[in-house]
Amino acid sequence: MAKTPGSKPNAAFMKPLTPSAELAAVVGSEPLARSEVVSKMWEYIKKNNLQNPANKREIISDDKLQPIFGKPKVTMFEMNKLLAGHLK
Q1: What CATH number does residue 76 fall under?
Q2: Is the pTM of this model over 0.70?
Q3: Which of 36, 53, 71, 79 is within CB 3.0–4.6 Å of 32 for a Cys-Cys bond?
Q4: 62-85 residue pLDDT tens
């Protein structure tokens, strides 16, 4: 989506949120904007090779991701929805 001149970034996405203890184990305990949380999650997923090689849209839970996702694997679209429950 192209930005129109004078448009402002969505303040809701820029507001720093505090991660839950489970999420802090992956992204750290400092308050972060939603976009930063998602970026750090992808860093962790790629660093630990947690994408399903047969379907790159699937993320396989390891010991740190299992408490966040609550199931063995999720799609990248589900991940964003599940992260919202771990941010205040």
Answers
A1: 1.10.245.10
A2: yes
A3: 36
A4: 999 999 999 999 999 999 999 999
